[in-house]
């Protein structure tokens, strides 16, 4: 039995597709990305990439058209995206196999695959969608913003997928706990942590002496808890500190930092992957304070470059590091805990070097995307065995 995948963007699904191809299991991968944007996706035959770019591509370019500020338009756009890609894939599925679809993109295609006697795996990259909606609503309220909420149609669709799916793949214990809290049967949940691109990320330098550099890579948003990170950096006492922020800054954060003292905070915007190696390698610590996500892959990138991590458990960090060994795990919404971690690194000259060494050891033991592929292959074999089907 072959594997069909559905994903509107790249996310981790193209890493999975490479692994499925490597194991001789990939049938095709449906995506909203245009094919010309996927030429660098080596290891996947182009004929196995089925694109449906008519909704996703203009959505990606909406900021250039000045449409990204219209919440109602974006809401309808996202709903159209998840429905059209899902239905397009459903019409294309003709034979029994294994379907793994990114959540909210697999209800129709999952039903189609099951009607043919196949297996449907819902792949969820973040916490349970209701948990996600609730924690973000609370966070927006804390900072004085209105949370428009996840589209009720998508909330309903995803939760139908959770019930319909034979299995739900998730990347971290944090995500698993959110599903169990919402009443999903633990036996349906299969935790498969993501890997890191060990071929792309490696240690190429060391931090500058007599300077304390904190690095942020990823979306700069309320969801990522950026203001707690910024407040910790501002309150931390050090004569030569620097906060490098790489990533797109959300509207909410832009409005909040207008009133902030941003001395020694350097916003770099979007930076190419090829340049991230130097930032990771030459920073004293990588900081990620998310309120909610699945398993932030930037953490694996930092580890692969020997950069210790300070992260909340809601980033999936507990599936990557051990507290006080490769970095620190701190509570959400807690700037004081972050400051304490900064101080420990500064007060112990050898601690950063020890953590850097441990980070390199740990990321090698995690095995990169090959381990992820092996684990996913094992799940597929288990699913087929339990369904009394054959490969």
TrEMBL record:
Tell me which Pfam families the record gives: Glycos_transf_1
- Give the UniProt keywords, A-Z: Transferase
MF terms from GO for this chain are: glycosyltransferase activity
Which InterPro entries did the record assign?
Answer: Glyco_trans_1
* Keyword Transferase on entry: yes
Q: Where is the signal peptide?
A: none
Domain Glycosyl transferase family residues, every copy: 202-360
Q: Which PANTHER family match?
A: GLYCOSYLTRANSFERASE
Protein name, as recorded: Glycosyltransferase family 1 protein
**Organism for this UniProt entry:** Zobellia amurskyensis
């Amino acid at each position: 039995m072959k594997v069909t995948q559905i994903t509107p963007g790249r996310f981790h699904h193209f890493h999975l597709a490479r692994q499925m191809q490597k194991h001789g299991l990939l049938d095709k991968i449906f995506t909203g990305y245009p094919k010309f944007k996927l030429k660098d996706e080596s290891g996947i035959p182009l004929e196995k990439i089925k694109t449906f770019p008519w909704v996703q591509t203009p959505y990606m370019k909406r900021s250039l058209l000045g449409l990204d500020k219209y919440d109602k338009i974006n809401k309808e756009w996202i709903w159209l995206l998840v429905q059209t890609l899902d239905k397009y894939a459903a019409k294309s599925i003709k034979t029994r196999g294994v379907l793994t679809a990114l959540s909210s993109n697999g209800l129709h295609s999952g039903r189609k695959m099951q009607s043919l006697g196949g297996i449907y795996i819902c792949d969820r990259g973040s916490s349970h969608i209701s948990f996600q909606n609730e924690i973000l609503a609370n966070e927006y309220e804390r900072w004085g913003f209105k949370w428009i909420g996840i589209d009720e149609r998508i909330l309903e669709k995803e939760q139908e997928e959770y019930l319909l799916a034979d299995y739900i793949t998730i990347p971290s214990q944090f995500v698993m706990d959110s599903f169990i809290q919402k009443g999903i049967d633990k036996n349906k949940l299969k935790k498969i942590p993501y890997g890191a691109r060990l071929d792309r990320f490696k240690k190429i330098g060391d931090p500058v002496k007599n300077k304390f550099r904190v690095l942020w890579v990823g979306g700069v948003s309320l969801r990522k808890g950026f203001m707690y990170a910024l407040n910790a950096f501002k309150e931390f006492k050090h004569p030569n500190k620097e906060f490098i922020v790489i990533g797109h800054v959300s509207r909410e954060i832009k409005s909040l930092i207008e009133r902030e003292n941003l001395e020694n905070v350097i916003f770099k915007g979007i930076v190419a992957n090829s340049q991230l190696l130097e930032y990771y390698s030459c920073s004293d610590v990588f900081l990620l304070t998310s309120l909610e996500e699945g398993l932030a892959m930037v953490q694996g990138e930092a580890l692969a470059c020997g950069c210790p991590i300070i992260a909340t458990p809601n980033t999936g960090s507990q599936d990557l590091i051990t507290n006080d060994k490769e970095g620190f795990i701190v509570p959400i919404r807690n700037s004081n805990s972050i400051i304490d971690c900064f101080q420990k690194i500064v007060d112990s000259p050898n601690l950063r070097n020890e953590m850097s060494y441990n980070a390199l050891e740990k990321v090698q033991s995690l095995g990169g995307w090959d381990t992820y592929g092996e684990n996913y292959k094992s799940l597929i074999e288990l699913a087929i065995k339990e369904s009394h089907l054959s490969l």
